[in-house]
Amino acid sequence: MTYNGTTIVVDAMGGDHAPAVVAEGLALALAADADLQVLLVGPEAVVTPLASERCEPVIATEVIGMGEHPAAAVRGKKDSSIVVGCRLVKDGRAGGVFSAGSTGACMAAATLVMGRIPGIARPAIAAVIPAASRPTVLLDVGANADVKADMLVQFARMGAAYARVMLGVTEPSVGLLNIGEEPSKGSALAQEAHELMAASVPGFVGNVEGRDVPAGTVDVIVTDGFTGNVTLKVLEGLASVLFKEMKTALTSTLPNRLAASVVAPAIRELKGRLDPEAYGGAPLLGVNGVCIIGHGSSGAQAIANGIAATARAVRGDLTGTIARAVGDGAGTGA
User: Fold this and answer.
1) Bridge-based pairing state of the strands 290-293 and 204-208
2) Helix (H) or strand (E) run with residue 27 in it
3) Can you tell me the distance from the alpha carbon of 179 to that of 161, in angstroms, rounded to the nearest whole number?
4) 158: alpha, beta or left, given left = phi > 0 and alpha = psi -120 to 50?
5) In degrees rounded to 5, what are phi and psi of residue 40?
6) Which domains does the chain have, with CATH numbers?
7) Residue 183, preceding bond cis, omega within 30 degrees?
8) Using H for helix, E for strand and C for coil, what is the string for 278-317?
9) With 0-12 CB in 10 A as exposed, 13-18 as middle and 19+ as buried, what is 59?
């Protein structure tokens, strides 16, 4: 097959509802993007029936399950859909890979097979938080529970590159998540990171607090993977509880139900605007190729959004932008 557009890999077996939901999401993505070409990876019986002019099936005989040990599964299942997908990126047949499979397996496969961008100490997982005033890139949200200060500097540069390419922010502002705004606040790690970031990260505005994450105070917020993951899960849980409680309140009495009929369109619009899946999944930043990881419970539209985000990252040269951003920090603590 000869490709003239953007080529990405899609893992047909990624997600709780694969492969059916992946096929549905893929159809939506291809219909929305006439220049998109896809290498669909999975078992022959799954991917061959989905072949088309812009979708080439690539056979993978193994699948990594959600409950398997990530690194062991990647090393042991070299013909799994996610490993084969990452190999296609490494070999230059595609610019990026999208999977809604195991986050750990995606991270391990991308790191071991695609490799890191030269100069990157550790890849980081980012999440776009649909904050009040503007979306905020939060990283790391789970890849690195223990970090060093110079790694946080790299995370800041990678997050800013992502904000430029994917969110269209020309000069991203960057904050360091801490327990207070003053440079002297926080742990020894936070204080050291603050000093390094102030000296070497363009757009660094200093420390930000937890309340700044949903407020959208800055474009990029940097922290370690443990804190970032807890922060993300708290936000997701709080949003879920608030919408459930709102629904209960608006349906509890007849007057409330009548009022709900008036405000329902605005609530649906708000819920859609605050849906993190609208941004297409979590990118693994720092690997040598685009890798975007969808939520395991993704529906068809979330899969389509993830495929679209992967294509957009490839077209925007996200990998090259990160490489240049980290290269610019050489010798400054990054």
Assistant:
1) unpaired
2) helix 20-32
3) 25
4) alpha
5) -95, 115
6) 1-120+286-316 (3.40.718.10), 123-280 (3.40.718.10)
7) no
8) HHCCEEEECECCEEEECCCCCCHHHHHHHHHHHHHHHHCC
9) middle
One digit per residue, pLDDT tens: the chain, 334 residues? Answer: 444 569 999 999 988 888 999 999 999 999 999 999 999 999 999 999 999 999 999 999 999 988 888 889 999 999 999 999 999 999 999 999 999 999 999 999 999 999 999 999 999 999 998 877 788 999 999 999 999 999 999 999 999 999 999 999 999 999 999 999 898 899 999 999 999 999 999 999 999 999 999 888 999 999 999 999 999 888 877 777 776 776 777 777 877 777 767 666 766 665 565 565 666 789 999 999 999 999 878 889 999 999 999 999 999 999 999 999 988 765 444 4
Which amino acid is residue 274, in one-letter code?
L
Structure tokens at 262: 């008036």
Structure-block tokens of residue 16: 């709780």
Both structure tokens of 319: 């990998």
